[in-house]
Amino acid sequence: MARPGDEFAIRVRGVVKRFGAQTVLSGINLDVRAGETMVIMGGSGSGKSTLLRVIIGSHRPEEGSVTILGRDIGGLGEEGLNEVRKKFGILFQSGALFNSMTIAQNVALPLREHTDLDPGIIDIQVKIKLELVGLREHADKYPAQISGGMKKRAGLARALALDPKILFYDEPSAGLDPVTSAQIDQLIVALSKQLGVTRRGRHARDGTRRSRSPTGWRCWTRGASSRSRAAPGSRRCGTRAGKKPARGRSRTA
Hints:
The chain has a domain at about 80-250: Rossmann fold (3-Layer(aba) Sandwich). The protein is built from 6 helices and 12 strands.
Protein backbone atom coordinates (compact mmCIF):
# COMPACT_ATOMS: atom_id res chain seq x y z
CA MET A 1 0.00 0.00 0.00
CA ALA A 2 1.05 3.61 -0.32
CA ARG A 3 3.30 5.01 2.38
CA PRO A 4 2.12 7.78 4.77
CA GLY A 5 3.04 11.21 3.49
CA ASP A 6 2.96 10.27 -0.17
CA GLU A 7 1.10 12.51 -2.58
CA PHE A 8 -1.80 10.50 -3.94
CA ALA A 9 -3.07 10.92 -7.47
CA ILE A 10 -5.84 8.35 -6.94
CA ARG A 11 -7.41 6.99 -3.74
CA VAL A 12 -10.14 4.36 -3.70
CA ARG A 13 -11.76 3.42 -0.40
CA GLY A 14 -14.24 0.62 0.27
CA VAL A 15 -15.71 0.66 -3.23
CA VAL A 16 -18.62 -1.69 -3.86
CA LYS A 17 -20.23 -1.93 -7.27
CA ARG A 18 -23.21 -4.12 -8.08
CA PHE A 19 -25.20 -4.80 -11.23
CA GLY A 20 -28.52 -6.14 -10.06
CA ALA A 21 -27.86 -9.05 -7.71
CA GLN A 22 -24.27 -9.47 -8.90
CA THR A 23 -21.50 -7.83 -6.88
CA VAL A 24 -18.60 -7.07 -9.22
CA LEU A 25 -16.44 -5.03 -6.84
CA SER A 26 -16.47 -5.64 -3.10
CA GLY A 27 -14.60 -3.42 -0.66
CA ILE A 28 -11.85 -2.29 -3.05
CA ASN A 29 -9.09 -0.12 -1.56
CA LEU A 30 -6.44 1.38 -3.81
CA ASP A 31 -3.77 4.09 -3.58
CA VAL A 32 -1.79 5.37 -6.55
CA ARG A 33 0.98 7.86 -5.85
CA ALA A 34 1.74 10.77 -8.14
CA GLY A 35 4.15 9.65 -10.85
CA GLU A 36 3.59 5.96 -10.16
CA THR A 37 2.73 3.25 -12.66
CA MET A 38 -0.12 1.01 -11.54
CA VAL A 39 -1.36 -2.02 -13.47
CA ILE A 40 -4.67 -3.81 -12.90
CA MET A 41 -4.38 -7.53 -13.65
CA GLY A 42 -6.94 -10.30 -13.63
CA GLY A 43 -8.91 -12.74 -15.69
CA SER A 44 -11.85 -11.92 -17.90
CA GLY A 45 -14.83 -10.82 -15.84
CA SER A 46 -12.80 -10.10 -12.69
CA GLY A 47 -13.85 -6.44 -12.59
CA LYS A 48 -10.91 -4.61 -14.19
CA SER A 49 -12.95 -2.50 -16.61
CA THR A 50 -15.63 -1.89 -13.99
CA LEU A 51 -13.04 -0.54 -11.55
CA LEU A 52 -11.62 1.71 -14.25
CA ARG A 53 -15.09 3.06 -15.08
CA VAL A 54 -15.79 3.70 -11.39
CA ILE A 55 -12.54 5.63 -11.02
CA ILE A 56 -13.20 7.87 -14.04
CA GLY A 57 -16.78 8.51 -12.93
CA SER A 58 -18.63 6.56 -15.62
CA HIS A 59 -20.13 4.26 -12.96
CA ARG A 60 -21.27 5.36 -9.52
CA PRO A 61 -20.41 2.86 -6.77
CA GLU A 62 -23.05 1.69 -4.31
CA GLU A 63 -20.58 2.17 -1.47
CA GLY A 64 -17.18 3.74 -0.95
CA SER A 65 -15.34 6.75 -2.34
CA VAL A 66 -12.98 7.68 -5.16
CA THR A 67 -10.65 10.66 -4.84
CA ILE A 68 -8.74 11.96 -7.87
CA LEU A 69 -6.09 14.65 -7.39
CA GLY A 70 -7.56 15.55 -4.03
CA ARG A 71 -11.22 15.74 -5.08
CA ASP A 72 -13.84 13.23 -4.00
CA ILE A 73 -15.75 12.65 -7.24
CA GLY A 74 -18.69 10.94 -5.52
CA GLY A 75 -20.38 14.20 -4.59
CA LEU A 76 -19.70 16.00 -7.85
CA GLY A 77 -22.32 16.83 -10.42
CA GLU A 78 -21.67 16.44 -14.13
CA GLU A 79 -20.07 19.89 -14.41
CA GLY A 80 -17.70 19.28 -11.51
CA LEU A 81 -16.88 15.80 -12.77
CA ASN A 82 -16.03 17.19 -16.20
CA GLU A 83 -13.58 19.61 -14.59
CA VAL A 84 -11.80 16.67 -12.95
CA ARG A 85 -11.85 14.71 -16.21
CA LYS A 86 -9.89 17.48 -17.92
CA LYS A 87 -6.98 16.55 -15.67
CA PHE A 88 -6.69 12.98 -16.93
CA GLY A 89 -6.49 11.34 -20.32
CA ILE A 90 -7.77 7.95 -21.46
CA LEU A 91 -6.44 5.68 -24.16
CA PHE A 92 -9.27 3.31 -25.01
CA GLN A 93 -8.72 -0.25 -26.15
CA SER A 94 -10.05 0.49 -29.64
CA GLY A 95 -8.47 3.93 -29.89
CA ALA A 96 -12.02 5.39 -30.13
CA LEU A 97 -11.16 7.74 -32.97
CA PHE A 98 -13.87 9.52 -34.95
CA ASN A 99 -13.77 8.04 -38.45
CA SER A 100 -15.10 11.22 -40.08
CA MET A 101 -12.21 13.28 -38.70
CA THR A 102 -8.56 13.33 -39.69
CA ILE A 103 -5.94 12.31 -37.14
CA ALA A 104 -5.13 15.97 -36.51
CA GLN A 105 -8.80 16.82 -36.02
CA ASN A 106 -9.20 13.95 -33.54
CA VAL A 107 -6.27 15.21 -31.48
CA ALA A 108 -7.53 18.81 -31.67
CA LEU A 109 -11.04 17.93 -30.48
CA PRO A 110 -10.38 18.14 -26.69
CA LEU A 111 -8.57 21.45 -27.17
CA ARG A 112 -11.44 22.91 -29.19
CA GLU A 113 -14.08 21.65 -26.74
CA HIS A 114 -12.40 22.47 -23.44
CA THR A 115 -10.11 25.45 -24.02
CA ASP A 116 -10.29 28.98 -25.41
CA LEU A 117 -7.04 28.69 -27.34
CA ASP A 118 -6.74 30.36 -30.72
CA PRO A 119 -6.91 28.00 -33.72
CA GLY A 120 -3.26 28.71 -34.51
CA ILE A 121 -2.17 27.68 -31.01
CA ILE A 122 -4.30 24.55 -31.22
CA ASP A 123 -2.64 23.62 -34.50
CA ILE A 124 0.78 23.99 -32.86
CA GLN A 125 -0.29 21.86 -29.90
CA VAL A 126 -1.61 19.16 -32.22
CA LYS A 127 1.66 19.05 -34.13
CA ILE A 128 3.58 18.72 -30.86
CA LYS A 129 1.42 15.82 -29.66
CA LEU A 130 1.61 14.03 -33.01
CA GLU A 131 5.37 14.51 -33.04
CA LEU A 132 5.58 12.87 -29.61
CA VAL A 133 3.93 9.70 -30.93
CA GLY A 134 5.61 9.75 -34.34
CA LEU A 135 2.55 10.61 -36.43
CA ARG A 136 3.12 14.18 -37.51
CA GLU A 137 3.45 13.25 -41.18
CA HIS A 138 0.12 11.37 -40.99
CA ALA A 139 -1.89 14.27 -39.57
CA ASP A 140 -4.19 14.61 -42.58
CA LYS A 141 -5.04 10.93 -42.88
CA TYR A 142 -8.29 9.39 -41.67
CA PRO A 143 -8.45 6.46 -39.21
CA ALA A 144 -9.41 4.07 -42.03
CA GLN A 145 -6.15 4.94 -43.79
CA ILE A 146 -3.78 3.98 -40.96
CA SER A 147 -2.79 0.74 -39.23
CA GLY A 148 -4.00 -0.53 -35.87
CA GLY A 149 -0.78 0.49 -34.17
CA MET A 150 -1.01 3.98 -35.63
CA LYS A 151 -4.58 4.28 -34.36
CA LYS A 152 -3.34 3.50 -30.85
CA ARG A 153 -0.64 6.17 -31.26
CA ALA A 154 -3.25 8.66 -32.45
CA GLY A 155 -5.45 7.80 -29.48
CA LEU A 156 -2.49 8.37 -27.19
CA ALA A 157 -1.81 11.76 -28.77
CA ARG A 158 -5.43 12.74 -28.15
CA ALA A 159 -5.21 11.50 -24.55
CA LEU A 160 -2.24 13.84 -24.09
CA ALA A 161 -3.94 16.84 -25.73
CA LEU A 162 -4.85 18.62 -22.48
CA ASP A 163 -1.51 17.82 -20.78
CA PRO A 164 -3.13 15.51 -18.20
CA LYS A 165 -1.68 14.64 -14.81
CA ILE A 166 -3.00 11.07 -15.02
CA LEU A 167 -3.22 8.69 -17.98
CA PHE A 168 -5.55 5.70 -18.03
CA TYR A 169 -4.89 2.86 -20.47
CA ASP A 170 -7.44 0.17 -21.28
CA GLU A 171 -5.31 -2.66 -22.73
CA PRO A 172 -3.55 -0.33 -25.20
CA SER A 173 -1.74 -3.12 -27.05
CA ALA A 174 -4.73 -5.47 -27.36
CA GLY A 175 -5.27 -6.78 -30.88
CA LEU A 176 -1.79 -5.84 -32.08
CA ASP A 177 0.98 -8.11 -33.29
CA PRO A 178 3.87 -8.71 -30.85
CA VAL A 179 6.26 -6.27 -32.54
CA THR A 180 3.76 -3.42 -32.72
CA SER A 181 2.57 -4.23 -29.20
CA ALA A 182 6.11 -3.87 -27.86
CA GLN A 183 6.53 -0.57 -29.70
CA ILE A 184 3.35 0.84 -28.15
CA ASP A 185 4.46 -0.29 -24.70
CA GLN A 186 7.88 1.31 -25.12
CA LEU A 187 6.27 4.53 -26.33
CA ILE A 188 3.96 4.65 -23.32
CA VAL A 189 6.85 4.14 -20.90
CA ALA A 190 9.02 6.73 -22.65
CA LEU A 191 6.26 9.35 -22.73
CA SER A 192 5.37 8.79 -19.08
CA LYS A 193 8.98 9.39 -18.06
CA GLN A 194 9.29 12.39 -20.35
CA LEU A 195 6.04 14.03 -19.30
CA GLY A 196 5.99 12.92 -15.65
CA VAL A 197 2.41 11.64 -15.58
CA THR A 198 0.82 9.00 -13.37
CA ARG A 199 -0.03 5.87 -15.37
CA ARG A 200 -2.77 3.41 -14.63
CA GLY A 201 -3.67 0.59 -16.97
CA ARG A 202 -5.14 -2.85 -17.47
CA HIS A 203 -2.07 -4.77 -18.51
CA ALA A 204 1.53 -5.24 -17.36
CA ARG A 205 4.42 -4.32 -19.59
CA ASP A 206 7.91 -2.82 -19.50
CA GLY A 207 8.46 -0.35 -16.69
CA THR A 208 5.79 -1.80 -14.41
CA ARG A 209 6.46 -1.06 -10.76
CA ARG A 210 3.31 -2.21 -9.03
CA SER A 211 0.47 -4.46 -10.05
CA ARG A 212 -2.90 -5.13 -8.58
CA SER A 213 -5.54 -7.75 -9.21
CA PRO A 214 -9.09 -7.42 -7.90
CA THR A 215 -8.07 -9.90 -5.15
CA GLY A 216 -4.73 -8.53 -4.00
CA TRP A 217 -1.32 -6.98 -4.54
CA ARG A 218 1.86 -8.19 -6.14
CA CYS A 219 4.97 -6.10 -6.65
CA TRP A 220 8.05 -6.80 -8.70
CA THR A 221 10.83 -5.21 -10.66
CA ARG A 222 11.23 -6.06 -14.30
CA GLY A 223 14.29 -7.83 -15.63
CA ALA A 224 15.68 -8.04 -19.14
CA SER A 225 13.68 -11.13 -20.04
CA SER A 226 11.02 -10.64 -22.71
CA ARG A 227 8.61 -12.75 -20.69
CA SER A 228 8.24 -12.84 -16.93
CA ARG A 229 5.78 -14.08 -14.37
CA ALA A 230 4.96 -12.21 -11.22
CA ALA A 231 5.89 -15.16 -9.01
CA PRO A 232 9.63 -16.04 -8.95
CA GLY A 233 11.58 -13.31 -7.22
CA SER A 234 8.50 -11.18 -6.65
CA ARG A 235 7.43 -9.60 -3.39
CA ARG A 236 3.91 -9.93 -2.10
CA CYS A 237 2.68 -6.59 -0.81
CA GLY A 238 -0.39 -7.79 1.03
CA THR A 239 -3.78 -9.28 0.18
CA ARG A 240 -7.28 -9.08 1.45
CA ALA A 241 -8.14 -11.65 4.05
CA GLY A 242 -8.80 -15.06 2.60
CA LYS A 243 -7.76 -14.03 -0.90
CA LYS A 244 -4.70 -14.76 -3.01
CA PRO A 245 -3.28 -12.43 -5.63
CA ALA A 246 -4.11 -13.43 -9.16
CA ARG A 247 -1.13 -14.91 -10.94
CA GLY A 248 -0.96 -12.82 -14.05
CA ARG A 249 1.39 -13.29 -16.95
CA SER A 250 2.81 -10.33 -18.72
CA ARG A 251 4.69 -10.18 -21.96
CA THR A 252 6.78 -7.52 -23.54
CA ALA A 253 7.58 -9.25 -26.80
